[in-house]
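Researcher: Please translate sequence to structure tokens.
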Amino acid sequence: MVVRKRKKILKKRGHRTAGYGGQKKHRGGGSRGGRGNAGLHKHKVMRMLKYDPDHFGKKGFKRHFVRKPRSINLDELNKIIERLIEEKKLKGEMKINLTELGYDKLLGNGNLKYKITVEAKMFSKNALKKLEELGCKAITVD
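Model: Translation complete:
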């Protein structure tokens, strides 16, 4: 006489979920069509087009060759001049070179307290105007 083993599914016949809970299939991730963004070019393409149309492809470009000039305002220049005077690095002829300090352009925000000669690659119109009012010199350096 052959004794058959009763499988779980046979035991659970007649019950709504057959022991696999709610509406979830018992196959792991097999019923969802892959994990994460798998299938966005295949069976999930309509979902990608509707909810994330910019998912694929390149956007824009980088202009690596363009560099903004490092700029400094007159207010910040005041603080630097005060620090240099305290350290006794700036005395006698008051002359400051912004390129040596790592700046390219002088901007006109704020007011300068000292009568000084400023060397820089570029000056804004407002900065030149304020330097002339104070009687300072602005020297353009390459």
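Researcher: Any highlights?
Model: The radius of gyration is 37 Å.
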